[in-house]
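User: We ran a pulldown and think these components assemble together. Before we commit to crystallization trials, I'd like a predicted model of the whole complex to look at. Sequences follow.
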Amino acid sequence: MLDTSSRFPTLPPAPGVGYKPQHFKEILDASRPVEWLEIHAENYMGDGGRPLAQLRHLADRFPISVHGVGLSIGGEERLDPDHLSRLTHLCNWLQPASFSEHLAWSTHDSHFLNDLLPLPYTSSTLQRVCDHIDEVQEALGRQMLLENPSSYLAFDESTYAETEFLSEIAHRTGCGLLLDVNNVFVSATNLGLDPRAYIDAFPIEKVGEIHLGGHDEDEDDHGAPLLIDSHGREVADPVWALLDHVLERSGPRPLLIEWDADIPEWPALAAEAARAAGALERVPA
Amino acid sequence: MSVDQRQFHDALWDNARDAPAGLRDGQGRPAGARFSVYRNNVAVGLTEALEVSFPAIVKLIGPENFKKVAGVFLRQHPPKSPLIMVYGTEFPVFLESFQPLNHIGYLPDVARLEQALRESYHAADATPIDPGNLANLSEEELTATRMTFAPSARLICSHWPVHAIWAYNLEDGAPKPANVAQDVFITRPDFDPQCHPLSKESGVFFASLLLGNSIGEAFEDAAETSSEFDLAAVLTLLLDTQAITAIHSEV
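Assistant: Here's a predicted model for the assembly, 536 residues in total across the polymer chains.
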């Protein structure tokens, strides 16, 4: 019999980390501050073996957030039905506390590009994204969260600000939003915008989860700073400062540290989670 | 000016093209090198996925050469699914026809072995048979028995010392490969796939069983290859490694 009840129906307003198999033992031994885990959905779509065994084990102890990176919600083509059914299968047996995906596209002409590619913010892309989110929420039978992207460039044709675009999607589909504070800082730096003004315009009441990750610094053709969302180091100080501004508006929320490249030993990741715990403690509930 | 996803996609794969017009920086200037961030993410991400899956090939040709080879491969064979953990199933066949590496004849077979290990790692869990089920059969029943292999079992047949080459490149203290052809049987008793190098006649026996032949038929195939075939040893290997999930005896 399939047990469809969930031990952890929601993510706690506390620090979590992106789960990496090399940290399996330390995570099981660790006490606070890590109170929940996020996995990349696509890494748990095999048929069996260690990844699924570890996940079953962790799901007994921790609320799990399933974070998809391959659904291509912003794609011009229809959603890949095979992939949507793999995702439905995963969410059905795991009963995660949350499912989230990205405002981005990654598949074209059946080719998966393995990156989160940008969208123009127009009424036609808005309609398409909403249709795809409706389809996902219907297939999964649950509300999803949609994450704001890191931008390196802008589209001439865009007619909406990103915050307006996300507000309208949340309004039309009933989805929640995942606010990646590092992405806000990266995009604002890259496009010459004010990150605090972005946060002030963000529909903060829709935020079900916050992401924090590290970025790299580069330059564009004109010598202007170009930040790259690399997830390969500690969260930068100005991003922590921006987080404080977010939390003042939002109150405590589930707060994830993402570290996906040059993955450190557990203590370095735990230290980032402890810093996140400190930021949450400064906010009145 | 609008940019559709076909234009974006085509420009991503071709470094010689300009970024599509209609993409801008924050001040309205053409995006230029900013577009290369996406090009770089795609190529680096897929190259890293291949490096994780084919570590012995990285060692054999060197990390710098591997990046170049991966760059050619990923343009010819972009992923067809978001399951990047299994990206590169065409890599062994690609290596066969990749002229600059044709002088290293064993590369495709080593890549096949690594591919099989990866498949075994992600294969479905299964319950092995009780070894007593086989031990209790009469000789006549045993001869007529066909076997169902665990989903994680794989057989690699090679004219090269493929296991020895693989091990020499990845395992500390592994001996230098001798010039003897090896077949390799892969099983996954718990979570870690294990390699069992086989003699030619044992490889023939396993291949025959995997085709659905009975133990008796597979024995004849193996005995034709060499009179030294040791049936008891290979049956012990199959049971010890939990590679068999069902037996079917029809006498």
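Chain A has one domain: 15-281. That may be worth checking against your pulldown data before setting up trials.

User: Thanks, that helps.
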